[in-house]
Amino acid sequence: MFKTTKVFSGFSVNDIQKAKQFYGETLGLEVSESNGLLTLNIAGGTKIVVYPKPNHTPATFTILNFPVDQIDAAVSRLKERGVRFERYDQPGFKTDDKGIFRGGGPLIAWFKDPAGNILSVIEQK
What is the pLDDT of residue 103? Predict the structure, then answer.
């Protein structure tokens, strides 16, 4: 039934203007705004809708993963733009001083948007 449908995803934020600045300026994505909604125009033609929700509750899981060639360089560039990386220190699961998890599997670092939603950069060569 949906085999040829161009699916898109969406998530909520509590402040569209802060989201527009963060996704457009801080992360450097192409962002458009229409009818009170943001559209993140991702490489390859993917579109993600960001909508306002007054009683927004941040996602407790990663909503967007950004693949990068070199995670250390990406983390450094994002830190220069004011992004703060999450730090985790649990048995068997610990991020390093940069906020990068190097404990097996792909290298990954998590950060939050202004609405508290969790995002990541993940190294994929």
Answer: 87
Alpha carbon distances (Å) from 62 to 1, 33, 116: 28, 23, 11
Best CA proximity match to 38, nearest among 29, 48, 28: 48
* Region of residue 99 (left: phi > 0; alpha: psi -120 to 50; beta: else): left
Q: Which residues contact 73 (CB under 8 A, 6 or more apart)?
A: none
Chain centroid, CA 63 distance in Å: 7
Rounded Cα distance between 46 and 78, Å, is 22
- The two tokens of residue 111 are 């950060």
Three-class SS of residue 80?
helix
Q: What digits encode the pLDDT tens for the residues 66-111? A: 999 999 999 999 999 999 999 999 888 899 999 999 988 899 999 9
- DSSP β-bridge partners for residue 90: 93
The phi, psi pair for 68, rounded to 5°, reads: -135, 155
Tokens 């948007």, residue located: 113
Minimal CA–CA distance to 72: which of 40, 95, 44, 88?
95
Residues 6+ apart with CB under 8 A from 21: none
